Amino acid sequence: MHALLGVGVFIVALISTYQGVIRLIEAERIYPEGAIRGINDLLFVIILLEILRTVIGRFTNGSYQLESFLVIGVIASVRSILTVGATLTLGSDISQEKFTRLLYELGISAIISLLLVVALAIAKFSRRSFDPMEQG
Q1: Contact predicate 13/48, CB 8 Å
Q2: What is d(CA 51, CA 41) in angstroms, rounded to the nearest whole number?
Q3: How much helix, strand and coil, in percent to the nearest 5, is found in the chain?
Q4: Beta carbons within 10 angstroms of residue 82's beta carbon
Q5: pLDDT tier at 107, thresholds 50, 70, 90
Q6: Which residue in 33, 64, 69, 116 has its CB near the most CB atoms, within 10 A?
Q7: Phi, psi dihedrals of residue 133, rounded to the nearest 5°
Q8: Which of 126, 70, 80 shows the shortest CA–CA distance to 107?
Q9: Given phi > 0 = left and psi -120 to 50 = alpha, else beta, which region is 71?
Q10: Residue 67 has pLDDT above 80, yes or no
Q11: Are 30 and 72 in contact (CB under 8 A)?
Q12: Whole-angstrom Cα Rg for the chain
C-alpha cells in the first residue's frame, strides 16, 4: 500500500510540475505574477517530494520520522507567507477588510513557521543527545 501511495504522490508531483511550467509559460506577465505563481507551484512540488521522501523513509527505517513532517510544515507555511506577501504587494485594489484578513494570515503563518523551526531544532537536538551511537 505504501508503494502504491509513493507512486501516486510521484505522479501527482510530475503532473503538478507540468502544470506549473504551463502556467508560467501562459502567464500574461512573467514578472511579478508569473514569477510568484511559479514559486508557489515549485514549493507545492517540493512539499509533494518531501511527502514522497517520507513514504520512502518508511520503507528504509520502518517508521515515520517526525522531522520529515516538520520540514513539510515549514515549507507549507513559508509558501503561505510568500503567497500572502505577494497578494499584499500586488493587490492595490483590495478592500480594507481583505487587507486586514491577509495581515492576520501573514502573522499566523509567520508564528507557525517559527514554532515549526523551533520544534525541528528540538527534534534534531534531542535525537543527537540521546543517540547511543554518537556518544562514543
Answers
A1: yes
A2: 16
A3: 85, 0, 15
A4: 15
A5: very high
A6: 116
A7: -70, -30
A8: 80
A9: alpha
A10: yes
A11: no
A12: 19
- DSSP letter at 132 equals T
How many angstroms separate the CA atoms of 54 and 28, rounded?
37
Cα 118 to chain centroid, rounded: 16
Nearest to 43 by CA among 5, 79, 80, 87: 79
Q: Provide the residue count of the chain.
A: 136
My answer on whether omega of the bond before 132 falls inside 30° of 0, hence cis, is no
Residue-level pLDDT at 16: 94
**Continuous segment of H or E residues that includes residue 82:** helix 66-90
**The pTM is what?**
0.78
Contact of 47 with 12, CB cutoff 8 Å: no
| Grid cell in block for residue 96 | 480594507
pLDDT band at 77 (very low <50, low <70, confident <90, very high): very high
Enumerate residues 6+ apart whose C-beta is below 8 A from 42: 20
